[in-house]
Amino acid sequence: MNDYRFGNYLTKLRRRSGMTQQLLAYKLGITDKAVSKWENGRARPSLPQLRKLAELYSIPLETLLSMKEKENSVEITKIVITGGPCAGKTTAMSWIEKEFGGKGRGYTVLFVPETATELITGGVAPWTCGSNLDYQKCQVRLQKEKEAVFEQAARTMPAEKVLIVCDRGVLDNKAYMNQAEFDAVMRAAGTNEVEERDGYDGVFHMVTAAKGALEAYTLANNAARTETPEQAAELDDKIIAAWTGHPHLRIIDNSTGFEGKLRRLLAEIASLLGEPEPMETERKYLIRYPDIRALDEKPNCEKIDIIQTYLKSPEGREVRVRQRGQNGNYVFFRTEKRRISDISRAETERRITPKEYVAALIEADPLRKPIQKTRYCLTENNTYYEIDIYPGWSRQAIMEIELRSPEEEVIIPDGIKVIREVTQEEEFSNYQMAREMPPEK
Question: Which end of the chain has a smaller Cβ tally under 10 Å, C or N?
């Protein structure tokens, strides 16, 4: 194999481990430029360096020397484009293909068609099946099988990176069912809500034209669409509520015109993919302890249990692993953050297996305790709010708001009383709170 393929292999091993080039260089005692040269195929590690790499990646040295990979090196990212009726998803798909496929950013882009439209236009609908529950079981089964086929096909492709774009995902179905029906569908499919919701790398909700762009609302371009503008707006809210709780949910509203809406969508997808470097812009507030009963009763609010552990990392970086879920069902992530400005950080995150999560705990920072908290994910005002409740606090909590840009106006949700903004107060960062919890005010 030539140096280019060997470089790709090294890149794959590093990303799988959750390390950046800078962190790998730190562990090896070399410069990140040297790592970059390896991964670009312009140089190869020495034998002692290969031994260190084999130890870091927990693979036999012979594997690196012989380059006998057991699986395709394709990097697969799966996202959902969702939204209320007449949100612009069809046009968005063509923009995504142009922006990321081929000569754009070099991705092989695959599109999973909207399952509901396929079924309804084919004669399978809630009103033709025995019941809505019967129909929803069929739709979820077909959705999951289609996605599995696309992922299977992606793994066989001679491509370095594949972007799978789902025109709606499994959790869209929740908007058309009550909780008992949804639970029955999950049982029938042998799965659970956390696994299905958080199984996508990103979820991008395009707000219906019925909310903010009524003049553009039409039923003409989708034979399966029957909703009035009022029904479309109500359904839009239900779909947002269904996906609330996903760690990377972004809401794309109609505040900038249709072309601006699409450009914002592309920018959000590019940020998720790390092209350019993924940025997180957020503001953080110390708030009065919220009315938990009121949050629990909100259909657009989801309660998530989180345990996060910080790992030993070089100066200026935060590396953590996180267990995240609800009702006994959990998924696991590894995240690295680097501060760019007072309110912006570069962030990379990937999902890991339970085995990888347990293995990472060996590298836990002994100076920082694991943080256990309850997070209420709230979607209001086309904004995603995260309210964190910490054990030992009874009078205050932390609320974070992810912004589209540093200039965006912040709207505080109804019922939330802000004590003050603490975005730039280091003692209220989770990284420092893992070391010492600040006292209540």
Answer: C
